[in-house]
Backbone:
């Protein structure tokens, strides 16, 4: 399973499926708490448990290993994505914000 720290970060790492826990949908990334443009599937992994790749994580807030929040993106997991969505928690309904338009004067 390929994961990223933030939905838009180019660095990614592979973890075994059994290493991911606490699956949930969120629009807040791990690490810097970046607000995303929509909800993405997230889970928690141990920072030193990857089997390939690298993540945007430096262990500055404590000695490893510790649990970190990661984003599970469709990119890299295309073959399994349907099974991931079916097995994971229900995706929240999108929240649409009304745009405010200024009246012409």
Residues:
């Amino acid at each position: 399973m390929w994961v990223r720290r933030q939905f838009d970060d180019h660095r990614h790492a592979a973890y075994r499926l059994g290493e991911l826990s606490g699956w949930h949908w969120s629009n807040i990334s791990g690490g810097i708490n970046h607000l995303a443009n929509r909800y993405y599937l997230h889970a928690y992994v141990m920072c030193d448990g990857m089997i390939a790749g690298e993540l945007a994580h430096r262990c500055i807030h404590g000695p490893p290993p510790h649990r970190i929040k990661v984003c599970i993106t469709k990119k890299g997991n295309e073959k399994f994505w349907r099974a991931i969505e079916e097995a994971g928690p229900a995706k929240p309904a999108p929240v649409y914000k009304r745009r405010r338009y200024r009246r012409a004067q």
About this structure: The radius of gyration is 16 Å. The mean pLDDT is 84.
